[in-house]
Amino acid sequence: MSVQHDPVQRADFDQVMVPNYAPAAFIPVRGAGSRVWDQSGRELIDFAGGIAVNVLGHAHPALVKALTEQANTLWHVSNVFTNEPALRLAKKLVDATFAERVFFCNSGAEANEAAFKLARRVAHDKFGPEKCEIIAAVNSFHGRTLFTVSVGGQPKYSDGFGPKIQGISHVPFNDLEALKAAISDKTCAVVLEPIQGEGGVLPIDLAYLQGARELCNQHDALLVLDEVQTGMGRSGSLFAYQHYGVTPDILTSAKSLGGGFPIGAMLTTSELAKHLVVGTHGTTYGGNPLACAVGEAVIDVINTPEVLAGVQAKHQRFKSKLEQIGQQYDLFGEVRGLGLLIGCVLADAWKGKAKMLLDAAAAEGLMVLQAGPDVVRFAPSLVVEDADIDEGLARFERAVIKLTQA
């Protein structure tokens, strides 16, 4: 028997919600695989993936089963106790990565907050309070807490909230000379995204990442990789650092880690983890059984040769069609990214019109994203079916045609 709910509509958002978002005019109510239906019953294809979160699409049977079984068993016990799903998921993350220790939380911002606090604590314990400086990249994005938004290299997100966290500097992404000039023995961490997500789906250069690793080694600084958007198979490797072959000291994960259920994780070594002794950091919900049970199901499905190889094949299918559309309508200057995180950089004539393309695509029954005003971003399910890719891109092309004829 289904529960009867009071009717709600999009206009209610403007009456009851804080106005920090401007959501679409329609409300999705149901999803299955890479398809979504709104209140009117209209079907859309989902290439947004909840902003690189719905890594296995909507209502994936393995995730539904894991969540339902756990919901009938144990929801929450707090960090006064440990729980079996958390231990199982932690073991699987350790087995699959460089890491030896895991800290669970609820979001990417919290995972980065933990990473930055750990980096400062390690430097404080080993070298003293002067070694606290963090270097991040211009146009980076690391979350919305005061600390993480200060580390993020986008003043539009961090300005206007009073004094910022001190000891943070920003250098141009992929510019090794700038990083060399900025790093010193006061640097405790260099923080980088393997692909700048919000900053325009811009992959890191291998030589730059290798150089950053070397500079960190020389200056006793930690290399922190923010894999909140790039992790959990998104790049075609389980984590993007594995694609590049450069190992960080600390890695953060969230978004796809729970496939849509809120969870974040900070991964690191035993040697570094020992600096977060009992009482130094915590979270009430972090590592709760519901989130970890779902996370375990996610990694079980994704971390297989078939799914990871499928990501590469699907990347090629997307890229070739998007490049064809880009050339045919003089729409894109470049199609870039790794795996199923793809950014289409708008050509000069279309600069600033990413939002217009999003809205036109939605009108044709397709959900896509933007990464700034000049880049259309695709972050679909890693198991999106080829038929859905083809149909979704046909809808995208129809949206482009309508805009060119307008």
From TrEMBL:
Q: Could you tell me the EC number(s) of this protein?
A: 2.6.1.11
Q: Which cofactor does it need?
A: pyridoxal 5'-phosphate
- Cofactor: how bound: Binds 1 pyridoxal phosphate per subunit.
Q: Which residues bind N(2)-acetyl-L-ornithine?
A: 144, 283
Q: Could you tell me one molecular function GO term of this UniProt entry?
A: N2-acetyl-L-ornithine:2-oxoglutarate 5-aminotransferase activity
Which GO biological-process labels does this protein carry?
A: L-arginine biosynthetic process
Q: Which InterPro entries match?
A: Ac/SucOrn_transaminase_bac, AcOrn/SuccOrn_fam, Aminotrans_3, Aminotrans_3_PPA_site, Class-III_PLP-dep_AT, PyrdxlP-dep_Trfase, PyrdxlP-dep_Trfase_major, PyrdxlP-dep_Trfase_small
Quote the record's binding site residues for pyridoxal 5'-phosphate: 108-109, 141, 226-229, 284
Against CDD domains, the record matches this protein to:
OAT_like
Which reaction is this enzyme known to catalyze? N(2)-acetyl-L-ornithine + 2-oxoglutarate = N-acetyl-L-glutamate 5-semialdehyde + L-glutamate
Listed A to Z, the keywords are: Amino-acid biosynthesis, Aminotransferase, Arginine biosynthesis, Cytoplasm, Pyridoxal phosphate, Transferase
Q: Which domain of life does the protein's organism represent?
A: Bacteria
Which EC class heads this enzyme's classification? transferase
| Record field: transmembrane | none
Post-translational modification N6-(pyridoxal phosphate)lysine, affected residues: 255
Q: What is its main location?
A: cytoplasm
What positions belong to coiled-coil segments?
A: none
The answer to keyword Ion transport applying to this record is no
Subunit and partners = Homodimer.
Additional detail: May also have succinyldiaminopimelate aminotransferase activity, thus carrying out the corresponding step in lysine biosynthesis.
Protein name, entry field: Acetylornithine aminotransferase
What species does this protein belong to?
A: Pseudomonas taeanensis MS-3
